[in-house]
Amino acid sequence: MAYLLRTGSLEGYLELMEELGADSGFLLRQAGLKRKIFDNPDTRIPFQTANQLLENSAHHTGNTQIGLLMAFRRSGHVLGLFGILCRHSPDVATAINQAIRNIDLHNQMEHWELKNQGSDVILIRHIKDYRINRMAQMDDMALGDVARFLQSISEGSIKLKRVYLTHSAPTNAQIYNHYFKTEVLFNQDFNGVSFDQSHLSTKLHSQDRDIQKHLEYYIQSMKRELNDDIEEQTRHLIEQTLTSSDCNIEEISQLLAMHKRTLQKKLNSRGTSFSVILDQVRWGKAQQILSNSNMPISKLASLLGYSELSAFSRAFKEEFGISPRQWRKNLQ
Fold it and tell me: Which of 95, 118, 250, 310 is least surrounded by CB atoms within 10 angstroms?
């Protein structure tokens, strides 16, 4: 399946790019994103797309601490609605367990584990798909967000003992010690943070049982809706694979861990089908490219999976009533 995350995860990105003198518009287009995704922090985009945006931005700016800077230049409240739920928990342990249970509302790619180690506890970050090669910026940002989250719910009383990162140490590793205010270990077997186990029983001053009860109910409704949205998951996978040979119902259903007949049945129950969604994505992509670039129409046809230009032009005319060449001419 395509793992999604909230664009609230990218809070501060545009401001940081401006500060570094980078062209955020170019970097967003390179990742296939639009600036309007920042209008609503609950907009969901593919995790892999967001990861690529951060990695490209680090390469483009020559700054390998993009993720770290984003995490520590914003509030500890980037988790959205379930972050509010955590802050209204009775104690730190409950807040952390709430975060572990509901992290998929913020980022479907990751899950967290709280593990005892003597007098300490380690909060370990796991990811669900290890096929992504580079993820240093996401790792830094996630651990930075966790550090800020722990500080936020405990009003600064939690002091980290160590930070563990799987990626290698950069040349200016001391910046990590500056931000995390503790020892940072690189080339580790996992990504995580540790702190004294006694902090788990710390009471939270903002506890409100009524607010917690209502938020829990609402969040469970959100989770059911998110997990059941097979149409949206299919659309995202088609968008990701549209220009490759993997864009077919057999491959997409395999990515969703179901038989193609099961996928088609689920989509039919929502009043749509794989071919309808594929056409929507394909024609949306065609309109976008015709409107915003001078790509030769023959190349566009190939990009969208047509072996012959005539077949693409005929299909386009059936859909829009005019040829793709006339469509572009009318816009100009």
Answer: 118
Backbone angles phi, psi at 123, to 5 degrees: -100, 110
169 secondary structure, DSSP code:
P
Compute the distance between CA of residue 255 and CA of residue 298 in angstroms, rounded to an integer: 30
The domain boundary, picked from 160, 188, 223, lies at 223
- Which residue do the tokens 């240093």 mark? 136
Pairing of strands 4-6, 110-117: unpaired
Whole-prediction pTM value? 0.65
Question: Are both 260 and 180 inside the same structural domain?
Answer: no
Q: What total number of domains does the chain contain?
A: 2
Residue 243 confidence (pLDDT) above 60: yes
CA 116, 117, 121, 125 dihedral sign is negative
Whether residues 206 and 112 share a domain: the answer is yes
Nearest Cα neighbor of 317 from 293, 295, 297 is 297
Task: Tally Cβ neighbours within 10 Å of residue 40.
Answer: 11
Residue 36: domain span = 4-223
Check the CA dihedral 212-214-219-224 and report its sign.
positive
**pLDDT tens for residues 13-42?**
999 999 999 999 999 999 988 898 898 888
Asked if 10 and 73 count as a contact pair (C-beta separation under 8 A), the reply is: no
